[in-house]
Design goal:
Elements (H helix, E strand, L loop, with lengths): L8 E3 L4 E5 L2 E5 L6 E3 L6 E3 L3 E6 L3 E9 L9 E9 L2 E9 L4 E10 L2 E10 L4 E9 L2 E7 L6 E7 L7 E8 L7 E10 L14
Antiparallel strand pairs: 1-6, 2-3, 3-16, 4-5, 6-15, 7-12, 7-16, 8-9, 8-15, 9-10, 10-11, 12-13, 13-14
Amino acid sequence: MEFATDSLRWTREPESFLIAPDKIEIVTKSRTDLWQRTYYHFQNDNAPVLQMETAEPFFSFVVRTDFTESHHRFDQCGVVMYLDSENWLKASVEYENEEFQHLGSVVTNNGYSDWATTEIPASVKSMWYRLSRREDDFCLECSQDGARFRQMRICHLHKGNGPVRFGVYACSPEDSSFKAVFTRMALLPCQWQAHTGQAPDA
């Protein structure tokens, strides 16, 4: 299995984008987002998503994001696994202000999203992500150099036990627009190793 940009398909094609063998660019449109219900009570499901499909139960997808142009609250771009409007996950850096931004992930199961974050300096303008699959469980990792990845989250998708779609996304939930750039995209054998510690209860 290889990652090839000509195998990617849009869910909600943006007005402005570029797809090359080694680079993807998405220019976001204002008032676009992915979120379902929790806390805010609204349902936003209009962000552009570019993905490929696979039934492979074990793999890792790596991508480098550049968001130098992000400048407005909640501007974001990152890795995504979008199955349908109520079942998906994403990881990204969301701009907050001139001092800090949120590095985090959202997992949405059966129409309810959560958001786990940590603050990082606003001066950070690129981030690598690694999305790994072990059947219907997933691991999200991030890296600033593409070499040393740190775990962000381990999660489960209730509808993640069959063919899945994964790739990249970008959006601007408020009145903003910026260019998100994705490079160094690769599919690898699963880098998230099988658990070898405590055995499950009998």
